[in-house]
Amino acid sequence: MHMHTRLGHQLPNLIHSSPISKSSAFASHCHRAMATQVPHKFDIGTKFKLNSGYEIPLLGYGVYQTPADVAEQVTLHAFQTGYRHVDSARAYRNEQPVADAIRNSGLKREDIFFTSKVPPRSMGYEATQKAINSSFVQTGLDYIDLYLIHAPYGGKEGRLGSWKALVEAQKAGKIRSIGVSNYGVHHLDELEAYINSAGDDGSKIDVGQWEIHPWLPRDDIVEWSRKRGVAIEAYCPIVRGERAGEEVLQELGKKHGKTWAQVLLRWSLQKGFVPLPKSVTPERIEQNADIYDFELDADDMKALDFPNSYAPCSWDPTTSHD
Ligand SMILES: NC(=O)c1ccc[n+]([C@@H]2O[C@H](COP(=O)([O-])OP(=O)(O)OC[C@H]3O[C@@H](n4cnc5c(N)ncnc54)[C@H](OP(=O)(O)O)[C@@H]3O)[C@@H](O)[C@H]2O)c1
């Protein structure tokens, strides 16, 4: 049984609906909340309501670099642990085994949130249409919950052409929510200008995905997204283990009886992000979901506040200007 903590943060569109534990105390949270409504409680079943109207579970399970031959098994373990959201991509070459895990999980399709992404090589209207089709052929799914543009490459025409293909697939009911990844503010502004000019055909940005952690807080992008109700997914939320030895993480871990990785994931949740930790190791899959029985206080959050730090551990297409 998880202990539920109270949060005094701005979490837009927060919804609670837990597959693990339900309590009448949460009923009042099962609505579309305004950005300023506090406090909120959450656990592994908590969701955001997206601009599309669909809900996204707040904790995601990442599968980048998860080999296809183990992907079904580890994803099944994640589902058994309580995760209900998997972040895949065409480029990860494991959409098919992840979809097998969805089918073989015994869970209802609508209880699982599956994401894929347009590969950087498939930018532009027609190439993106083909990429989306390939995802359906490979996964055998009837619909995909979220499809993102993986990176802002391909020039303006390529980016807007890809967006147009996503909107059409959304209107056809094949994709429920759409968004972007690795977009800098200049890419977001470009897309917003197109959306504003396209009327009904522009749709809305539901989700943005970026590398975000205390050493890469991306305040400009976060502010842009919050203003528009765009849910913010945080990739590399545990910095691929590279910061495990940081004193601040060791100290906070000791203070709360948690690991450095759990401290980072909790930071991400309390900032209102959707962290996407990846692991192929069963104990780590479980550890990364065991983050609902403690809370970082204001001092802890301050100790993890490095507003001037800009230290990606992954690629960084946000700065590209093609
Ligand atoms: N949109 C994009 O461009 C983009 C880019 C990168 C990532 N992503 C998404 O974000 C997800 C997460 O990012 P990421 O995989 O790069 O980095 P990450 O989740 O920060 O770190 C994953 C690494 O940390 C290890 N690990 C996991 N849990 C641990 C724990 N509790 N203790 C110690 N080590 C632990 C994993 O090892 P084991 O697996 O061996 O356990 C793996 O080597 C990806 O899987 C992907 O879905 C998106």
From TrEMBL:
Residues the entry annotates as binding substrate: 150
Catalytic reactions on record: xylitol + NADP(+) = D-xylose + NADPH + H(+); xylitol + NAD(+) = D-xylose + NADH + H(+)
GO function terms (MF aspect): oxidoreductase activity
Cited InterPro entries: AKR, Aldo/ket_reductase_CS, NAD(P)_OxRdtase_dom_sf, NADP_OxRdtase_dom
Residues carrying the site annotation Lowers pKa of active site Tyr: 117
Annotated active site: 92 (proton donor)
Domain (NADP-dependent oxidoreductase) ranges: 66-305
Entry EC no(s): 1.1.1.307
Classification via Gene3D superfamilies: NADP-dependent oxidoreductase domain (3.20.20.100)
Enzyme class (EC, first level): oxidoreductase
Keyword set, alphabetical order: Oxidoreductase
Keyword Hydrolase belongs to the record: no
Pfam families the UniProt entry points to: Aldo_ket_red
Main function: Catalyzes the initial reaction in the xylose utilization pathway by reducing D-xylose into xylitol. Xylose is a major component of hemicelluloses such as xylan. Most fungi utilize D-xylose via three enzymatic reactions, xylose reductase (XR), xylitol dehydrogenase (XDH), and xylulokinase, to form xylulose 5-phosphate, which enters pentose phosphate pathway.
Record family assignment: Belongs to the aldo/keto reductase family.
Protein's UniProt name: D-xylose reductase [NAD(P)H]
